[in-house]
Amino acid sequence: AERPADGPWRLVVVGRLTPNKNQKAAIRALAAVVDAGLDASLEVLGDGPELERLEVLAAELGVADRVAFRGMVDLREVTATFAASDIQLLTSKQEGFGKVLLEGMVQGVVPITSHSPASGEISGNGSRGVVADPEDPGSFARAVQDLVADRERWVRMVDDARAYTGAHTLEVFGREVQALLQRQWHVELQPPRVAP
Q1: For residue 40, how many C-alpha atoms fall within 13 Å in the half-sphere facing its CB?
Q2: Which residue in 44, 52, 87, 184 is a FRET match for 77, CA 20 to 30 A apart?
């Protein structure tokens, strides 16, 4: 993984624009890091009912020129955006496994994600991602600033993220989700039935 020591740093958010996905926290985090002197921008991929409110918020915070609302895009464009980005923000108030994080990690994007049942697994408890509080945009901003301040850590996390995602086939993913649900729900799930 390579990253210029100075900016600009490209942040990315992918997902439907809804109150639960909480992209306003990502915009607030961007504004905080820009106010702190970081050369950064945010790509927002997705569409939804919060678009107008998010555009207004970006303007109010003075970062409208640093936020690109790209709308619904195809998988090829998502992949290309990940490949050109440095840090992915997943600011959801509630999230399951967060498959979109793995999609970014395989392209060399370090995730900063909300707490979820799988956030420790996905983040490697800090070795390949950072877990932040979705109710505190400042925690996302601090995580971005910490990564930018320690380029060697960012590179190590990119390398660990790529290794982790490279080992995650759909079969492995299915077993891990089953084990996670069994731990969370304290039940034993039967393997899926195969159609005759």
Answers
A1: 24
A2: 52
Q: What are phi and psi of 150, to 5 degrees?
A: -125, 80
- Of 85 and 1, which is predicted with more confidence? 85
Greater confidence (98 vs 88) lies with: 88
Q: Which amino acid is residue 50, in one-letter code?
A: E
Token readout for 33 is 């890091």
Q: What is the mean pLDDT of the chain?
A: 89
In this prediction, residue 191 carries a pLDDT of 67
CA distance 83 to 62: 27
Using left for φ > 0, alpha for ψ between -120 and 50, and beta otherwise, residue 10 falls in beta
Q: How many angstroms separate the Cα of 58 from the Cα of each of 24, 29, 126, 148, 163?
A: 9, 11, 29, 22, 35
| pTM of the predicted structure, to 2 decimals | 0.84
| DSSP helix/strand/coil, 190 | coil
Total residue length of the chain:
196
Cα–Cα separations (whole angstroms), residue 179 to 71, 112, 122: 35, 24, 14
